From TrEMBL:
This is Protein arginine N-methyltransferase domain-containing protein. Keywords: Methyltransferase, Nucleus, S-adenosyl-L-methionine, Transferase. CDD domains: AdoMet_MTases. Residues 242-405 form the Protein arginine N-methyltransferase domain. Transmembrane segments: none annotated. InterPro entries: Arg_MeTrfase, PRMT_dom, SAM-dependent_MTases_sf. One of its GO terms (molecular function) is histone methyltransferase activity. Coiled coil: none annotated. It is found in: Nucleus. One of its GO terms (biological process) is methylation. GO terms for cellular component: nucleus. Pfam families: PrmA, PRMT_C.
Length: 419
């Protein structure tokens, strides 16, 4: 996938402050008219010299990089610190046991977590129920239907027919749910990959999907939605949601970094810093407290799902994070929001630390060194995001950053892989 060259990145850095104008978006997602306010902050940066730390470009994050798809599945749990306050390290034998005996429990638990995510599910419900003119007598395609909840919403809102496509065995459960609720004549559940199935119709009027992963693009489901759009969507048809934006901020997080990352420097008198190197290179998915935020929040990228190409999910974006108080920066934090702009009234939700919590939480990228920053000083740089070439469901992140402050001068490049 093509990424911007250095000249283009430098031009973006110089133009960022003039091209990104502050604006506010109000998102409604509950029946009681509760709203969230998101602020797109002006961006600017400067050209800086940089060093490289941690991984060099092209280095693998772990040994044994030649893997099959099965290896990727099992190894996705055999790594450090991806979720919450836990360090995950399971053997493939134990995971095989879980897969055979506990798969249904794991899937059910995951589905329940998403359904109980009120911000997520209630937003989709409100978008559909409060805008029936978008669905009335329309042919709808639900990509990655899961339990079929979005298909049920669409059917209840008056859709002519809904095709619910689900690749996993959950498709059988979804079909049973559809039957239990009396919508078998409106909803057809199809088991299989979007890229491999054939729909009973040539075109659809609306594509709806909850495709967003951690860090917005993790697991690469966006590509599947774009494939369905290009193959089946009628001209001027709707893709819901149609906008998604990725943001960046910086936080103080001394306690966690000391407990979970610096721990490896001295383990009962032994040097295990090689594990520290790996753990810091894997982004953490966790909830960030609002009082940890040290800087402004910077808009990195907005994606127009109705128009974008697959390669647009790979990008390099400049950022300038300005300190709002004297503090230390231990990590940068990414989060996203999504918008449904074709509704009668703009709707959507945010996964940011200043908004109501969701199951996506936030994505934390720990820095190799602690940055001391004074109010008004800035961390500037670029973030490059792209699917991993060997396993596209993973995300490779290159972070270049620098600070030239009173108490801290630093210029670094760090490489992360979300997997």
């Amino acid at each position: 996938m093509d990424l911007p060259n250095n000249a283009n990145v430098n031009a973006d850095l110089n133009d960022a402050v003039t091209t990104s104008k502050p604006s506010k978006i109000r998102f409604e997602y509950e029946d009681d008219e509760e709203v969230e306010t998101l602020e797109e902050v002006a961006a600017e940066s400067s050209n800086v010299e940089e060093d490289s730390s941690m991984y060099e470009a092209g280095d693998t994050l772990t040994a044994g990089d030649e893997k099959t798809s099965a290896d990727y599945y099992f190894d996705s749990y055999s790594h450090f610190g991806k979720f919450g306050n836990c360090t995950w390290k399971y053997s493939s034998f134990y995971l095989l046991y879980l897969c055979k005996v506990g798969f249904l429990i794991l899937v059910t638990s995951s589905m329940q977590e998403m359904l109980k995510d009120v911000v997520r599910t209630k937003t989709y419900q409100n978008v559909i129920y409060k805008n029936p003119f978008l669905f009335k007598d329309k042919i709808v395609l639900d990509v990655g239907a899961g339990t079929g909840i979005l298909s049920l919403f669409c059917a209840k809102a008056g859709a002519k027919h809904v095709y619910a496509v689900e690749c996993s065995s959950m498709a059988h459960t979804a079909q049973e749910i559809v039957k239990l609720n009396g919508y078998s004549n409106v909803i057809t559940v199809l088991k299989g990959k979007i890229e491999e199935i054939e729909l009973p119709v040539a075109q659809v009027d609306v594509i709806i999907s909850e495709w967003m992963g951690y860090f917005l693009v993790y697991e690469n489901m966006l590509d599947t939605v774009l494939y369905a759009r290009d193959k089946w969507l009628v001209p001027n048809g709707l893709v819901l949601p149609d906008k998604a934006s990725l943001y960046l901020t910086a936080i103080e997080d001394a306690d966690y970094k000391e407990d979970k990352i610096e721990f490896w420097n001295n383990v009962y008198g032994f040097d295990m810093s090689c594990i520290r190197k790996q753990s810091i290179a894997e982004p953490l998915v966790d909830t960030v407290e609002q009082n940890q935020i040290v800087t402004n929040c910077q808009l990195l990228k907005t994606m127009d799902i109705s128009k974008m190409a697959s390669v647009d999910a790979s990008f390099t974006a400049p950022f300038k994070l300005v300190a709002e108080r004297d503090d230390y920066i231990h990590a940068l934090v990414a989060y996203f929001d999504v918008s449904f702009t074709k509704c009668h009234k703009l709707m959507g939700f945010s996964t940011g630390p200043k908004s109501r919590a969701t199951h996506w939480k936030q994505t934390v990228l720990y820095l190799e060194e602690v940055l001391s920053i004074c109010q008004g000083e800035a961390v500037t740089g670029t973030m490059t995001v792209a699917p991993n070439k060997k396993n596209p469901r993973d995300v490779d992140i290159t972070l270049k950053y620098s600070i030239n402050g009173r108490h801290c001068q630093a210029s670094k490049t760090q490489y992360y892989r979300m997997r």
